[in-house]
C-alpha cells in the first residue's frame, strides 16, 4: 500500500495480489478501515502506530507481546514475501518481479 496512491490504486493492488493481511500505520488507518470493509477476503488488518487502534484492526504491538518467538521460517530465495508495485514512467501500476 502506498499513501501517495489513490484509493482506487490501492484497491487494484489488493485485488491483484489476493492480499489476506494488510498492515497500516497511523496515516493509513482510515483508508485501511475502508479497505477492510471492501475486501472480505482480508483476514486481518494490523495497525502499527501510536494512535488508538481503530475498530476491527489488530494491534501489532499486542500481537508481538502475546506470542512467543517462533523458529526461523527457513525461507528460500524463491519464497514470496512481498509484492511491490511501481507506476514507472507511465503512471500505471505495474507489478514488477517479486
UniProtKB/TrEMBL annotation:
SUPFAM superfamilies found in the cross-reference section: Acetyl-CoA synthetase-like
This protein's superkingdom?
A: Bacteria
Gene3D superfamilies in the record: N-terminal domain of ligase-like (3.40.50.12780)
**InterPro entries from the xrefs?**
AMP-dep_synth/lig_dom, ANL_N_sf
Domain AMP-dependent synthetase/ligase stretches: 2-92
Query: This protein is called what?
Result: AMP-binding enzyme
Q: What species is given as this protein's source?
A: Paracoccus solventivorans
